[in-house]
Structures are given as structure tokens and as C-alpha cells.
Automatic annotation (TrEMBL):
Name listed for the protein in its UniProt record: Restriction alleviation protein Lar
Pfam families: Lar_restr_allev
Length: 85
């Protein structure tokens, strides 16, 4: 059964990738690099991704949105730092 992916709950992009690593699956946004929860089945990974988008009330970007208009958005600050020394 095919299930449509909802847009990214963080950047509203539809540029999504289904990732499989070892024993689990997850949905990855290729625009902002956010990842959905890792699940044992592909169907469950898609379902959890869609639940997040629906819960946050995310609407897809209009078809007229261009890469230039998306590039104007500010990038979030990193949440972690690497200590060297």
C-alpha cells in the first residue's frame, strides 16, 4: 500500500528521502537534513513522519516557490559544538 509523504514539519519541503540502515527505516528531509524517528518497518517510519507533520499543521510550499525565495530564509544556529584539544 502506497502512502504519500507529508511535507517536512520543519522547512515545509517536499524533497524527502527514505533511508534504510541496517534494521530500521526513517524519512530524511534533503533540504534541512531533519530526520524522522527510526522505525522497524518502512510503513511505520512514514506513518510517524506524517503524524508529526499533521500534528504541527504543516502545509506544503506553494508550487511557485523558487530556490531563490527559499535561500532567503535564515539557517538555524547549530545545536552542538565539537570540543577539540
Amino acid at each position: 500500500m502506497a502512502t504519500a509523504l507529508e511535507p517536512c514539519p520543519f522547512c515545509r519541503s517536499n524533497h524527502l528521502h527514505l533511508a534504510h540502515s541496517g534494521l530500521d527505516y526513517c524519512v530524511v528531509c534533503q533540504s534541512c537534513k531533519s530526520k524522522g524517528p527510526h522505525q522497524e518497518t518502512l510503513e511505520r517510519a512514514i506513518s510517524r513522519w506524517n503524524e508529526t507533520s499533521v500534528r504541527l499543521g504543516v502545509q506544503p510550499l506553494p508550487e511557485t516557490a523558487t530556490s531563490e525565495s527559499l535561500a532567503d530564509r535564515t539557517q538555524p544556529e547549530p545545536r552542538y559544538f565539537v570540543a577539540r584539544g
